[in-house]
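User: My collaborator sent over this chain with a note saying "see what the structure looks like." That's all I know about it. Can you take a look?
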Amino acid sequence: MLRGRAVTLRPVTEADVPALATIRATPEVRRWWRGGDDLAASVRADLADDTLAVYAIEDAGRLVGAIQWYAETDPDYRHVSLDVFLDPAVRGTGLGGDAIRTLVQHLVDEYGHHRFTVDPAAANTAAIRAYAKVGFRPVGVMRRYERGADGRWHDALLMDLLAEELAD
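Assistant: Without extra context I'll predict from the sequence alone. Here is the result:
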């Protein structure tokens, strides 16, 4: 378990799948995360992916989202990629930033990681602001990076953070 200022991060379990699928089904989250018709299956697929580490985000004992990370293993390109989603009911409360900060600090302290990347949709201004608040900086727009639910290609913003840039 990892403890932030307000959040607790812990490994996701099978018991968390229905609650996470419910959060993923909210229009505000589904717009960016999608996942097909069976969101519980999408959450389970993330849990089954050996390359991902998925943590539940809790606030006062209540599950409010998830954060996951993937490590690039090539030693010449070593870095971590992160992704996070939150229940829209807790947006704007600082819990997302707390979760990101807590996980990044853990990855620096325990694994010696020095560089972190995120790639939110360029139109996802809330996510971009949350990442920027903890120190992520824009690197550049990745054009036509991801196919949207509408079938069209959409841009994403590549952002990165060096360990020493993590904001308090």
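A starting point for your reply to your collaborator: The helical segments are 17-25, 27-33, 39-48, 95-111, 125-133.
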